[in-house]
Amino acid sequence: MISLTIDGIKVEVEEGAKILDAAEKVNAHIPTLCMHEDLERSGNCGVCIVEIKGKGTERACVTPAEEGMEIITKSNELKKARKTVVELILSNHPNDCLQCIRNQNCELQELAEKMNIREYKYPQIYGSHLREDNSSPSIYLDPSYCIKCGRCVQVCQDVQHVYALEVNDRGFDVFYGPTMGRDLEDSECVKCGQCSAHCPVAAIHERVDSDKVWEALNDPQKIVVAQEAPAVRVALGEEFGLQPGENIKGKMYAALRRLGFDYVFDTNFGADLTIMEEAAEFAKILQKDPSELPLITTCCPSWVDYLEKFFSPLIPHFSSAKSPHQMVGSMVKTYWAEKMGIDKENVFLVSVMPCTAKKYEIERMEHMYSSGHKDVDVTITTREFARMLKEAGIDPTELDDEKPDSPMGEYSGAGTIFGASGGVMEAALRTGYYYVTGEELPDPNIDFVRGIEGVKEGEIEIDGKKIKIAVASGLSNVEKVLQKVYLAKQNGEESPYHFIEVMACRGGCVGGGGQPYGSTNKVREERAKGLYTEDEELKVRESHNNPYIKKLYDEFLGEPLGEKAETLLHTGYKNRKGYNDMLSEEWIKNEY
């Protein structure tokens, strides 16, 4: 242990701890701007300076604590220095807080308020010479707001291993953006949105599509339908003062109706439908030719984009089942529209998602038009939904609970846990076990797939066979799993896994790129906990036992993997050439 003093208070910390860590132990607040718990500390912003007696000032977040150090965190000189740093950042930042998408939810604005900065002390030093980038269907870049904290590059490179963003140029001309000056849409970007989730200001955010929703809501010719992903219900409340993980599904349904939606369904129904198809795929391969395993889940569109760009040789192992909200889209504009006697051309379907990549997914391939029209018309993030509610003066926490509309508002516990890493796998195993054995899984709780760890592994026995499972979240963790599979195949060995779940974002959809700002591991855990609690409370916990799913197959689809199901509920993948090959022998040798 190392002993030092912080503002005269003795404290002991582990060797290797930073001054900031020592200060936190004695509740000595040191402001930061570039730091995020998901990322390695960089010290880029320079706001966290402290005084070390006899050594001058250092940045607390990256300076190691040393034996006998005497640290001062509060003095007039430090106050002035920190304030000057923030004032200089503001001098190269647009003065349009009232019009900014991050107004009242901006880390720079919050820090300036805490430092009592009430005027722009310095004139604009230099203006941004970079253009906005709205080429992506999911992510919008505006370099004029960038404060050079580096979080976006760190999360893209170190956490996701995508390397779509980098530090470009030098000196006053430095900027953070796509490599080699390309548009984001032409880069390696997989639309996960983690750059936007970690940006402290408005330099990177989701492409805003709420104007399209308002237009549809005000069109008397449109029948406007909503569906909401499971992760939304346990995060939306954060925008209105509730704690992470508080499940406000009933109030969410009510709020959507107050906005003017004609029908409110639930993507959890689509999750049950996805499981029916995906588990049927797994059972079919397991019983017919297990050597064709593993089967890899494909509910996450960011992951799909990633696999097509970097892991295309493994495409034969990917489930062809569409994601839940795309299945709901297809069913709304075929089965439901026909049942209701509504012209599907007049149906406008809005998906409320925790994800920025869903904006890309709805136009990804011709399979997303399986109804003869665009199956999902618009996707908005949880953040966009919250902004719409605030714009309309609706606080969902003040509303009485309401129920979704039938039949596509009814779901099982398996459907609701889709929002957590491991939830898709757990739901698929509950039904896959039934498909193979004809019996219910003795215990529907599969604990080893739960949690926010990057890679989770385990085994489950189905009909006398030991099924090896892997669950990965965060794309850097996905590489580790898939390269094991690839190397085994190359060497003629049995695959180390039979069934693999992948989510691009850490912790799964609860930590999605479109969720309320401030996602940390603790927040992700609490959101996931809210979903597992609902699963435990529901009477029906398996997708195949959802009576409304059974009715859909009886009345319309026929059977899982049947001809109509294949047409409406399945998709395909293609090799997107021109990107780094993460399965090349040279790459694997260098990485491992």
TrEMBL record:
InterPro entries: 2Fe-2S_ferredoxin-like_sf, 2Fe-2S_ferredoxin-type, 4Fe4S_Fe-S-bd, 4Fe4S_Fe_S_CS, Cytosolic_Fe-S_CAF, Fe_hydrogenase, Fe_hydrogenase_lsu_C, Fe_hydrogenase_ssu. Residues 1-77 form the 2Fe-2S ferredoxin-type domain. Residues 77-116 form the 4Fe-4S His(Cys)3-ligated-type domain. This is 2Fe-2S iron-sulfur cluster binding domain-containing protein. Residues 137-168, 180-209 form the 4Fe-4S ferredoxin-type domain. Pfam families: Fe_hyd_lg_C, Fe_hyd_SSU, Fer2_4, Fer4_7, NADH-G_4Fe-4S_3. It comes from Candidatus Mcinerneyibacterium aminivorans. SMART domains: Fe_hyd_SSU, NADH-G_4Fe-4S_3.
